[in-house]
């Protein structure tokens, strides 16, 4: 086993015996095989597209496969093995439709066929993992960066496809990046750098498709106060990122006396008109994903995990855990997307919140719903605030949260940011400070929740619109990005920022294990990416720009 794709990887180098996330060597091996087989599907898909064949289904399969290997998504070897066979079957279907072998067996990833049992699969996985994708250390680093970025792209693309937003050109782009370096062609170091930056462009398109899907189906987010105090009664908690699953559950529980609560990155969904219209959409429970093992024992009902961020369930709430879509944990109940009868039955059989329990929670509310439509709707006030000097600086403080020490930096940074600065935030990194009362500047809240990590497109559009309003580049704005990373979606978003030429990014709490010193130097020289230091020092440096 070797896995270094997330920030919590063992000793900052790589998990080799058991994943810190709880991933077993067996699950890791099958995930490596999924990536390997997906490269063969990608090469075959490109050839099929050149012959004029429709590759939409191949694209859906490819991104779903990559998404299933993302950190904290699927730990179940049975469903992972099924996904592996699905990838190879789709490759074979393309060959059959073309009536020829679209990728020769001389390219190993195209000749791969899964073994018949787990023992055989584990033997096949030896030597094809992600530790050594290239002989040159720096090319290997870039190959890993590209793969992990593509996993993030795949997640956003899969979210978008579920909502009906997809296009063949984007799938072909994903194919090309996944095939890069594994199609029998030699690539130079500069070409690898270019491929990594192109991954950022692909991710921008994926986020655009997802934004179109979310807002097209559920409307643009609106400023909305979300209660952190539960209501008395039966309850279901929804975690992950998927808006459609949440909507389907809201529809299926309407009138049944069950209140629906969000967890983790589902918090911003309360701002969507198409979701908040449901009267039993009751509020938010808990904080960031990594605190679930301490918080979920206190939730008196079932928990539905819709996308990534599941941890090993403790015995105290194991029977209340349900997964759907690509999420899987051995021994928990998996339900089909949109078929939540089993979850509802469990909710009716569990106690829900009592009056006494509710009274123990403070009557706290948090404000969400500051996507691009909202912020740009008051752009004149924002611009006037900057011109008058009322707003001196903007900080985008966001990204993935995690359990490793050092993340109190983000709380301290926000708390120490001067009163004439505005904090934009998105993704689960916000849970370090999401309930802080920071006041406002001329009626504009100082803390603006842009949304999920999936809503990074909104943040990009806000920055570009402000730059246009001030007739300058994004790098000339009084804007500093303070980012935390944990998993592959954050890698994809970072690559998008680099693709857009955005500089002066502070990244932490630690740098990725897959970045070599030489590759890091390229990022420093070209984009002035710097590791976070202390809140005081980084604030001073940002405000001196």
Overall mean confidence score, pLDDT: 95
Main beta-sheet strand count, sense and barrel state: 6 strands, parallel
Q: Which word captures the global form?
A: globular
Order of neighbouring strands in the sheet with most strands: 4-3-2-5-6-7
Q: Total number of β-strand segments?
A: 16
In whole angstroms, how far apart are the ends?
A: 45 Å
Description:
This protein is an alpha/beta fold. Helices cover 45% and strands 12% of the residues. It has helices spanning 25-50, 56-67, 77-98, 108-111, 118-125, 137-162, 168-179, 189-218, 243-253, 273-276, 292-295, 341-349, 355-359, 372-377, 379-388, 408-416, 456-469, 488-499, 517-527, 535-543, and strands at residues 224-227, 234-239, 258-262, 281-284, 303-305, 321-324, 333-335, 365-368, 393-399, 421-426, 440-441, 444-445, 447-451, 479-484, 505-508, 530-531. The strands form four sheets. The protein has a six-stranded parallel β-sheet. Helix 10 links the parallel strand 3 and strand 4 (281-284). It is globular, with a radius of gyration of 23 Å. The model has no long low-confidence stretch (mean pLDDT 95).
Task: Summarize this entry quickly.
This protein is an alpha/beta fold and 545 residues long. It is 45% helix and 12% strand. α6 runs parallel beside α8.
Main attributes?
six-stranded parallel sheet; 12% strand; alpha/beta; globular; 545 residues
């Amino acid at each position: 086993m070797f896995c270094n794709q997330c920030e919590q990887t063992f000793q900052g180098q790589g998990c080799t015996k058991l994943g810190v996330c709880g991933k077993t060597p067996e699950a890791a091996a099958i995930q490596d095989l999924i990536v390997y087989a997906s490269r063969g599907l990608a090469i075959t898909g490109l050839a099929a597209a050149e012959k004029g064949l429709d590759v939409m289904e191949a694209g859906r399969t490819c991104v779903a496969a990559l998404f299933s290997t993302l950190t904290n998504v699927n730990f179940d070897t049975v469903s992972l093995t099924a996904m592996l066979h699905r990838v190879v079957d789709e490759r074979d279907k393309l060959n059959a439709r073309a009536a020829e072998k679209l990728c020769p067996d001389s390219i190993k990833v195209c000749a791969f066929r899964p073994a018949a049992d787990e023992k055989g699969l584990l033997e096949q996985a030896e030597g094809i993992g992600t530790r050594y994708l290239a002989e040159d250390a720096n090319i290997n680093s870039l190959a890993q960066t590209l793969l992990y970025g593509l996993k993030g792209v795949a997640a956003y693309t899969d979210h978008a496809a579920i909502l009906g937003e997809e296009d063949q050109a984007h799938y072909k782009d994903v194919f090309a990046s996944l095939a890069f370096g594994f199609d029998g062609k030699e690539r130079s170091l500069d070409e690898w750098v270019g491929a990594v930056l192109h991954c950022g462009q692909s991710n921008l398109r994926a986020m655009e498709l997802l934004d179109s899907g979310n807002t097209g189906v559920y409307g643009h987010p609106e400023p909305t106060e979300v209660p952190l105090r539960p209501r008395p009664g039966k309850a279901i908690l929804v975690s992950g990122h998927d808006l459609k699953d949440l909507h389907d559950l809201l529809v299926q529980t309407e009138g049944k006396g069950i209140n629906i609560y969000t967890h983790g990155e589902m918090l911003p969904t309360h701002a969507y008109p198409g979701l908040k219209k449901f009267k039993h959409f009751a509020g938010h429970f808990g904080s960031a994903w990594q605190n679930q093992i301490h918080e979920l024992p206190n939730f008196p009902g079932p928990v539905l995990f819709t996308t990534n961020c599941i941890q090993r369930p403790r015995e105290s709430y194991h029977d209340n855990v349900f997964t759907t879509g690509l999420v899987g944990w051995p021994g928990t109940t998996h339900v089909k997307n949109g078929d939540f009868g089993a979850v509802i039955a469990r909710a009716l059989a569990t106690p829900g919140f009592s009056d006494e329990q509710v009274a123990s929670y403070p009557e706290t509310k948090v404000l969400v719903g500051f996507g691009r439509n909202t912020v740009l709707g008051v752009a004149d006030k924002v611009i006037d605030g900057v011109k008058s000097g009322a707003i001196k600086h903007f900080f985008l403080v966001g990204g993935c949260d995690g359990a490793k020490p050092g993340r109190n930096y983000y709380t301290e940074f926000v708390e120490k940011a001067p009163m004439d600065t505005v904090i934009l935030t998105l993704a689960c990194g916000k849970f370090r400070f999401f309930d802080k009362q920071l006041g406002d500047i001329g009626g504009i809240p100082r803390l603006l929740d842009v949304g999920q990590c999936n809503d990074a497109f909104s943040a990009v559009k806000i920055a570009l619109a402000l730059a246009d309003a001030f007739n300058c580049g994004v790098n000339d704005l009084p804007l500093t990005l303070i980012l935390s990373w944990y998993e592959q979606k954050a890698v994809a978003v970072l690559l998008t920022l680099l693709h857009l030429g955005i500089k002066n990014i502070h990244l932490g709490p630690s740098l990725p294990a897959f970045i070599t010193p030489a590759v890091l130097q390229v990022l420093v020289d070209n984009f002035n990416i710097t590791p976070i230091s202390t809140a005081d020092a980084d604030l001073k440096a940002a405000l001196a720009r």
